[in-house]
Amino acid sequence: MSNRPWRATVAVAALTALLVSGCSSDPERPTPTPSPAGTSAAPSTPAAPPADDPAARAAALVATLSDEDLVGQVLMPYAYGDSATRVSAGSAAGNQALAGVDTPADMISKYRLGGLILVGFSADDPTKGNQETTNVDNPKQVHELTTGLRTAAGRLAAGPAPLLIGTDQEYGVVTRVTDGVTVLPSALAAGAAGDPKLTEAAWRAAGAELAAMGINVDFAPVADVLATRSTVIGSRSYGSDPKQAAVQVGGAVRGLQAAGVAATLKHFPGHGHSADDSHQDLPVLTQSAEALQSGAWPPFTAGMDAGAMAVMSGHLDARAIDPGTPATFSHKLLTDVLRGQLGFKGVVITDGMNMPPAKRWAPGEAAVRALNAGNDLILMTPNVGQAYDGLLAALRGGSLPRARLVEAVTRVLTMKFRLAETPAAQMSTLNAPAHRAAADALATAAVTVLRGACGGAVREPVTVTSSGGRDGTRAALTAALTAAGVQVKPSGGTIVHLVGYGDGANDLRADAAVTVAMDTPYVLSGAKSPTLLATYSSSRASMNGLAAVLGGKARPGGRSPVTVPGLPATTCASS
C-alpha cells in the first residue's frame, strides 16, 4: 500500500492541531519557564478521535502535550546498558555522561523520549565508528530490555502511543541481533537473486522476529545505489542499477512492514554515490541534480510507494542542490526535494548525530538545525540533555517554529499508532523453520558463478580455507557441506577459499580451486581460481546456499549486481 494518502493526512493533522498545555512538573529537572502567553493553557478535552485513524489520534494526543513532552518526542538517543533499570557501574557512568542519568529507563522518564535505538557492532561493521556501546546480546535479553523501556515510556504523557525502539538490522555486515534469530543474506545478495518476491518473504520473516523482540523500527533497507566502490555502503546496497535496486527495496519494505515494523529508507539523497565514509568526514556528491534524480532516487521513491514509514537523511553534501550543507541540515533537500518534489510526508530521521559531519555544531544547535531542515526524529545525539534543552529554548525563543515541532511530533505519533495496529509475533517464532527456509531460498538464489562451469558438484573431498578471522564462517560452511553430503577434510582436498568484507589481493589463495566472495565481489577480479563464486554474504543462510551449489543440488542462478572488471555478471547463459 502506498503511503501517499497517509502522508497527506499527517501533514494536514499536524498543521491543524492546536497545541499547548501547562508545563508538567519533573522532579529531576528545574521547573521550566512558562510558555509564551496564549500557548500555555491546556485545551478542553476534545472528542475522542476514531480508534482506527492513527493520524487523528496523533493530532488529538499532540494537543494535550506540554512543550517538554513535545521536545522529548523528537529525540531518539542510544543508551548504555542491556537492561532498562539495572546496569553496570560502567554503563551508569556512560549514561551520566550522555544524559545525566543512570539507566535507560531514567533517560526515557527525564527527557520524555519518543524513542530509543539499540546499538552494537561486529568486527566487519563499517558503522562501528559511531557505535560507542552495545546493548544487544540475545533475543531474550533484547525482549526484556524492550519490555522495560516500554514500561517506562508508558508512564509519560505521550504514553498512549508506544515507544519507538529501533535498531540497524540490515543483514549482512550491519546486523545488530545475530544469535538465535533468522539472519538474512545481505542486500547485495538479494540484488543478485533478482526476485523481489523472495526478498519480500525473507524480510517478512525477519520483521516478525524483530517485532517479537519488541523492536518496531528497523533502520533498513539501504536504498543507496552502489554507483561507486563505497566500502561503507558496499554489500549493504542492492546493487548499481537503480531500477533493479528499486524493486528490491520495495520488496523489503513490504515484507518488513507487513510484520508491524517500520521500514527506514537510507541514506537520502544517496550515500552510494560517494566512496567516502560519513562516519569519518562529509562525503561530497558531485553529480548533477538530474543525475541524482535518475541514478540515486528510484529506490527511495519505490520504497515510498511500497509504504515506507520513514526515510533517513544522510550526512552528505549534494553540491548540485545545496553545496556545503550536509543533507541532514538542508531545508532544500529535505523539505523542497524529499517532501515537495518526491512527495514524502512520513517520518524523516537523521543519521547518527554523533557522527563527525553533525558534530560541527553543539548538540542543541545541531538538533534545532536538523528539525528546521525537515527531520522529525533526532537520532543518537552526543548529549541528550544539551539537545533537549537546546530544542526547548529554541521553541520558546522562536527559532524553532511551534508549527514545525507540532508537525514533527504528529508524524512521529502517527507512525507509533500505525505500528500498534499490527500485533507482534510471539518469541516462539524466532528462527522458525519457515523463516530459515525463506532466508535460505533467497541466499541460494543469490549464488553467482563469475568464472567456471554453470553448476555441477565440486570434486570431493573438499578442504575449506579462508582469510584470517573467519573460523566461524569456515565451520558453518563445513557443517553445511557435510549436511549436503559433501565430504570435507581438514587438508588435502579440493580447496574452497572464502574471502569477505575488507579483504584484498593478499587474502586470495593461488592454489584454490574455488574462490568465494562473501561481500562485494570486486576482489574476484584478481583471483586465479578456475571457479569464482559470489554469495555476497557470510550468513548461515548464504553458507547453506553455497553448500547446495557446491554439492550439485542447486543451480547458481544469481547475477552480480555490480560490475567486476574482467568478469561477466554470470557464466550461466540463461540467467
From TrEMBL:
The keyword Hydrolase is assigned to this record: yes
What class does this enzyme belong to in the EC scheme? hydrolase
Q: Which reaction does it catalyse?
A: Hydrolysis of terminal non-reducing N-acetyl-D-hexosamine residues in N-acetyl-beta-D-hexosaminides
Top-rank taxon: Bacteria
**Region ranges (Disordered):** 22-55, 554-575
Keyword rRNA-binding among UniProt keywords: no
Coiled-coil spans in chain: none
EC? 3.2.1.52
Keywords of this entry = Glycosidase, Hydrolase, Signal
Q: Which residues form the Glycoside hydrolase family 3 N-terminal domain?
A: 103-414
Q: Which residues form the signal peptide?
A: 1-26
The family line of this record is: Belongs to the glycosyl hydrolase 3 family.
Tell me the protein's name.
Answer: beta-N-acetylhexosaminidase
Query: Which organism is this entry from?
Result: Micromonospora jinlongensis
The organism's lineage is: Bacteria, Bacillati, Actinomycetota, Actinomycetes, Micromonosporales
